[in-house]
Amino acid sequence: MAENTFTPMFGLGDPNEAYAQYFIGSSYLNPLTSVAECGVGMSNVTFEPGCRNNWHVHHADKGGGQILICTDGRGWYQEWGKDPQELTPGAVVVIPAGVKHWHGAARDSWFSHIAFEAPGENCANEWLEPVADEQYPA
């Protein structure tokens, strides 16, 4: 893990151990709200430099998907079959249900975003293969 002098706007949180198997590198999770509390779960997710999650899909029978609000550092987002897009503070990414994608930090920067799953019916995440080094932006 890289030395952490990074202080995200919404707090670093704890090591993201529950989902570590779906990430290359270390990430941190700071829950901001819960579904039980207000109907929408939102968390600040922080990625060390070079950390990214696996390709994944947010499924839903109706509605659903994911929204990312970038708050700190610099990162990447990519949909399957499309070029990666750079993420910087203030960027908002709306990911419809059923879209295969990944997101994470740039190789040389810590990165944080607020992530939440859009409400929907029968929502479920499907974790897929890791992002290969060849796919990860230089």
UniProtKB/TrEMBL annotation:
Pfam families for this protein: Cupin_2
Query: Which residue numbers delimit the Cupin type-2 domain?
Result: 45-106
Give the matching InterPro entries. Answer: Cupin_2, HNL-like_cupin, RmlC-like_jellyroll, RmlC_Cupin_sf
PANTHER family named in the record: BLL4564 PROTEIN, RIBD C-TERMINAL DOMAIN CONTAINING PROTEIN
What name is this protein filed under?
Cupin domain-containing protein
* UniProt source species: Enorma phocaeensis
What taxonomic classification does the UniProt entry list for its organism? Bacteria, Bacillati, Actinomycetota, Coriobacteriia, Coriobacteriales
